[in-house]
Amino acid sequence: MSCLISILENMKPGVDFANEISLIDSHILDSVDIMSLAMDIEKYFHVEVTPLEIVPENFQSANAIYEMILRLNAAR
Questions:
Q1: What stretch of H or E contains 7?
Q2: Would you state the pLDDT for residue 75?
Q3: 8 with 38: CB under 8 angstroms?
């Protein structure tokens, strides 16, 4: 999880990603951020983020993103 938080903080410094629960609804992350984050997730966590995974529910919080990563990792 700490690696994910570091990736997010590098994208958007100053956001409390550990506690923020509405990254999409609050417009903290936009579509370009999501695509960049998906590529970073693939690179650092060695999972494939398919278009089916790129839905708001999976990117609403760091916890939701991490749960997606764990799910994708388990599916390998």
A1: helix 2-11
A2: 87
A3: no
What pLDDT shows up at residue 71? 97
Specify the number of domains making up the chain.
1
State the DSSP string of 14-70.
T--TTT---TTTTTSS-HHHHHHHHHHHHHHH-----GGG-SGGGGSSHHHHHHHHH
Instruction: Please report, for the domain that includes residue 63, its CATH number.
Output: 1.10.1200.10
Determine the 3-state secondary structure of 73 from DSSP.
helix
Segments forming the whole domain that contains residue 32: 2-74
Q: What is the pTM of this model?
A: 0.95
Q: Which residues of the chain have pLDDT under 70?
A: none
Separation in Å, CA 44 to CA 3, 4, 30, 41, 47: 8, 9, 21, 5, 8
Residue 16 CA to residue 30 CA, distance in Å, equals: 16
